[in-house]
User: Fold Site-specific integrase from Pseudoalteromonas fuliginea.
Amino acid sequence: MLVALVDTLKQLRYQIAHLDDGTLNSEYPELASFIQEVGLTVTESKADLIFLYQFLYVYGRKSEATYSRFRNELERFYLWSWLIAKKSVFNLKREDIEAYVDFMVEPDKAWAATSVQWRYKDEQGIRRLNQNWRPFMLKESIASQQTLSSMFTALNVFYKFALLEEKTFANFVPVVKKNSPYLVVQSQIQIPDTLSDIQWEYVFGVTRDLCEHNPDLERNLFTLACLKGLYLRISELSERPQWSPVMSHFWQDNDGFWFLRIMGKGNKLRDVTLSDDFVEYLKRYRLYRGLSALPRVDESDPLVHKIRGQGGMTVRQIRRLVQQSFDYAQQSLLDDGFKDDAEQLGAATAHWLRHTGATHDAQTRPLKHLSEDLGHSKIATTDQIYIQTNIKERAKSGLKRKI
Assistant:
């Protein structure tokens, strides 16, 4: 039987405590039984598991998204190591890691679920396993390049951490990655996923028009303005354990320029510049909420508010607002005869708005300014993703080639 080794981030410290004090059997009975039944000694499996929990506790403090990514990748790796290789993760050799990559490319169907499943839930004070949970999602094709890259990253970070903690004395992941037959060296033109001009006009314009009949859509409109106009990620607008975005995070300098202070990836603070156009939508949103037109330094009102309840919104809730506006726009595009644009919009995600804003502004803003507002640690990242000038010039210079 396949058993989820790791619960939610909130439950992780309890799992660590249960392993330490020997009470796992009373709190996680299925997991405790699984540890007894795997092909390792109980001491080995517990040592492996406690190190995984410690690793996830360290990296999970950065963000819940980071925790989830590492948890998913390492949990399936652990299960493969224990059940198929029948070794501790710290006894695996280079050829074992290569065998795991082969398994990742084509996992056993018994290890895959057809839908996302929860892991554990409370049942009379006990965390009970969902018998339908599986470490993989069932897919028709082999693992994508992005999936493989994420896997290699997680394993490499894990073994580097293990080296620092003197839990192991070798990290075979880099050499396996370098010689992997499944990874394709990227040399083709890569353009980020963005909305077309007409798609953005409909997404923003339809939402704005609907505000007349449904004022609560002002919240959608403001969210769209933040994601596209300030190049924000949804996580940067949402409530997190380490950060609660509030109105006082807007601030004005002595020269009258407005900024928004946010916490980005890796818990890095940055100040994003506000355009005159954005400030007008900020005023509009605040007046709808019954606030003064511009923020004050002492305001604790959440940046994106809940209609019911207190506090700010979660990533999932904000994503639903964006999807609602996408749905309205898609229907309007269909009604107006723009079938292709409507179909393409159906595949869009909220993150496309960040790419859309940055790609559009890359034509007029200095690269360094754009990079800092995006929160990129390296200006080369911004150049690689959003600057298409050289590519277009190369295409133009090649138009007159003769055969």
